[in-house]
Amino acid sequence: MVTETTTTPKSSIIYPESDGQPMADNTKQFRWIVTIQGGIDSLFKEDPNVFVAGDLLWYPVEGNNKLRVAPDVMVAFGRPKGDRGSYLQWKEDNIPPQVVFEVWSPGNTLTEMTKKLEFYQRYGVEEYYLYDPDKIDLVGWIRNENQLTSIETINGWVSPRLGVRFELSEEGLELYRPDGRKFSTYIELDTGRQQAEERAQQEAQRAQQEAQRAQQEAQRAQQEAQRAQQAEERAQQEAQRAQQAEERANRFAEQMRELGMDPDAM
Full-prediction pTM beyond 0.85? Predict the structure, then answer.
């Protein structure tokens, strides 16, 4: 007896774009996910071949739609930007995300996070960072000889792939770009934008005031020039009147001499 077995063609397998789980368990976790994802996306905005995503399902093996994980933030170098419903690795030149971030929430368990670490280890992640915003605790792993190994000193660590520096303070995790600028939340960015607009408006007002003062100075200088010109014209008129008076006196003296009188004796 021959038993026939059937297999589902890989091309007909559906890879769901949602696992039914929320992106974040609370506002704090969500804020950190958005801040990290947005900061990295901004950092590589000019590079068309760096794909950055948040809470996107990653399927590493074609034909297995159960094998998947949704990192809070993933970064794939060598892959074009663009919208995706999920990250199907075999359609991405088989390039796995090289850097992933997870933000610990109260709903996470040690078993769950251990499984994620094993997943990232098995499927080629080069850098993995796990941040607990409640405890202000950051741990990281980096691939060394095909093994994710713990980063001993994470405070001040610079990501080899991202060039981002990690600092821990009493307020929490701080991430700095290679140019020294700090990753900011949306509110911080909007506040900075508003302050920049206010400074620009103040500068424009000062420039306008300076232009008005310059215009007033120019008007005063023009008025002074006009007064000087008028004074010069008056002086010329006085000189002309003096000359005319002298000419009249000379003609009168000449007329007196013609009459036989000495004008100087009068």
Answer: no
